[in-house]
Every structure is written in structure tokens, then in C-alpha cells.
Amino acid sequence: MPNPCSICSSDQWSPHYRGPIRVGKFGSLSREPHTIWRCGGCGADWLEGATLDYESDDYRQLVDGAAGVETFHRTHDGEQAHKLELLGTGSLRGKVVADFGAGGGSFLDLVGGMARATLAIEPTASFHPALRAGGHVVFPYGSDVPAEWRGQVDLAVCFSVVEHVEHPLQLFQEIRALLKPGGRALVSTPNRDDWLLQLLPQDYASFFYRQVHRWYFDAPSLAALARRAGFKDARPFHAHRFDVSNFLLWLRDRRPSGLGKVDVPPALQAAFAPALEQSGRADYLYAWLEA
Ligand SMILES: [Zn+2]
Fold first, then answer.
1. Residue 135's Cα: distance from chain center in Å?
2. Is a pLDDT exceeding 80 seen at residue 50?
3. N or C end of the chain: which has fewer CB within 10 A?
4. What CA–CA distance (Å, rounded) separates 40 from 62?
């Protein structure tokens, strides 16, 4: 049995999954089975396993397949348009924006032209020179941000970070501490209500659960975490990034295939992502948090 939950202190864990998990890219599975535990107190799922060192290049190697800021940009620059679309660009000008888990700066480089100041919170030291060169104010962790910035941030983003950290409650408390009254945060994480996880509870699970993700959330458990961290309101929503082709080929071949590999009737394609998003079955979970 794990230690008490670091989010809610409950010791009421129940085993939710036991089997191989992903180590790195598709096809690379752990030799030993791992257990995913569900917390009876706050509903978060937790992967039992070793602690990882987020400050090291080895960690970036596990997450992106290679270390280095060029690899980060090549991997993540293309994902930023989707985030800007969800965020909207109408309320960024003149604002102070903080990115928790800024990586190589793919997101902040885009909004830096409109924002008054951009704070990059990023533990990987090898990214810091590129972040500073991009004009961002850099800190390794939220707890390193000095008092002059606390309560000064209009918008914080934290994309695909909460699943990685040892203490999600502390992360969300640090985000909230930077926000000014009325400030907002946009956070994201993989959705454990992903339809494929329900349909393929072994084959997709061993792809979905991975060594670098310690925590797994659905909309209620993510909102509960935010409220526990002191946010006044949490509004979860879902976003689906993949197409019908990928979905069908997962069911047929039990592996990711990328986009557009089989012909799909356009009306079905058009209805697919909105249907999954409205029913909470999309692959990604977001939430707007109000300070
Ligand atoms: Zn808990």
C-alpha cells in the first residue's frame, strides 16, 4: 500500500491497474508490472515507482526521446497553435504571463510579443540559456519566484506538467500564489476517461500509463485538486487531438498510427472530436482555474 496521498492525505487506496507501463516511446514496455492506485479521498490515480530527477537531461530523454533545446522545439513548437486557440489571444496584451513547465519556451516565445512580462518556471537547467535569450524571466521552481512577482501574474499556464510532479497540490498552490486576485490559470493533463482506455483496458493502458507520469486525472479529480489548492473555481473541459483513423487503427492493430491513415467519411470525421469532447471521452483534459 502506498503512503498517504500527497494531495488529500487519505490512505484509502485501491488498486486500479496492474501490468506493464510505457518507458519512453510506443513499444518500449517496463519489464516489471506496475500498479496504478486510486485514492479513495480525492479520486486521483497514482503510479507506484521510483522518483525521477526533473532537472536532468536524462529526464528530457525519457520525455522527448532526446535532450537539448533544439529537440524540444522540434517536438513541441507544432503543438502551440492548439493551445493558443483554446486560450484565445484577445486578453494577452500588456499582461504578465507565467508558464509552469516552460520547457524550451515554445509557448512563451509565441505570447512574449503581446505580454508585458513572461515568467518561465522550468527545472531543466540546460533550457535556461535559451529561455533567457528569449526574453523570459527564468526560475527553476515556483517556490524560487521572489516576492516581487507574487500576486502579479494575470495568466498562468501549466500544460502537461501536473501528471509528472511528485506533489501536484504544491504545484497548484505555487501557481495560485503567483496569480493576482481575479487572475486565471489554464492547466492540462492526459484524460484518464479517454475512450480508448475504456475500450482497450490492457493494450491501451500499457501505452497510456508511463514511467514519467506519476498522477492520472479525470475532470472531477482535477477540479478537486484545484479547489484544495485554494482556487475559487475550476472549470474542466476536454480536447481531442487525434482523428477517426487513429481511433479505428488502435482498435484493429493495438498501436498508434498517426493521423489520416484510412479514409473516413467527412461527416463522421467532423462529428468525432466534438462528440468525444462533449462526453468527456477525449484524450486530453484541460481546466480553467480562477484565483
Ligand atoms: Zn487523494
1. 24
2. no
3. N
4. 30
